[in-house]
Design goal:
about 180 residues; five-stranded mixed β-sheet
Length: about 180
């Protein structure tokens, strides 16, 4: 098992709730320093500011060297994907301002690293995170548990391998017509 030493900030991105976890990694030992959820309310620009300010406080207080963040996944709801992307951008901005290296992990990679199954349920991930950090109970809400899992994934796996340079031929790209069709729904 390849491990990384240092302090990691794990982020489960969003624009209403952002799961966060600060962990220390030393060899095969992991310690949860702080974890929880940033809750934001109001119109989107204000929520993004609330998230930004909360992450700046976390980064200043704990001084992590790495941001481990959930990678973009593809779904049917383009608006939800856009909002998650905006939340990811805020976390990356804070990382850049605080000199953190940024590593991105797809959800299936996180689940595989933590629970041994890339299709593991949130409950299974929660149980494994609880065991890995010696917690009394699974962190709630699941966003906090997911952030711990993302940070732990980085701690146990190190940087995600780079994608192959070969272009993906099966994925359909979004067209203006696709977006217009979604907006009419």
């Amino acid at each position: 098992m390849k491990t990384r030493a240092g302090r990691v900030l794990g982020i489960d991105p969003g624009t209403l709730r952002v799961g966060f976890a600060v962990i220390d990694c030393e060899g095969n030992s992991f310690r949860a320093v702080e974890y929880g959820v940033v809750r934001a309310s109001g119109p989107l620009p204000g929520r993004l500011l609330q998230i930004y300010e909360a992450l700046v406080v976390l980064a200043s207080r704990h001084r992590p060297s790495v941001l481990a963040i959930e990678d973009v996944f593809f779904g049917k709801d383009i608006r939800a994907m856009e909002k998650i992307g905006e939340g990811r951008a805020i976390a990356k901005l804070v990382a850049a301002q605080h000199g953190m290296d940024v590593f991105e992990y797809p959800p299936a990679t996180v689940k595989l690293a933590v629970a041994g199954n890339g299709a593991a349920s949130k409950e299974a991930v929660g149980r494994m995170v609880t065991a890995a950090f010696g917690l009394a109970e699974p962190p709630q809400p699941a966003d906090a548990s997911d952030a711990l899992a993302i940070a732990l994934c980085h701690g146990t796996r190190g940087p995600a391998p780079r994608a192959a340079s070969k272009p993906r031929s099966r994925r359909k790209g979004w067209t203006v017509a696709d977006v217009a069709a979604l907006e009419r729904r």
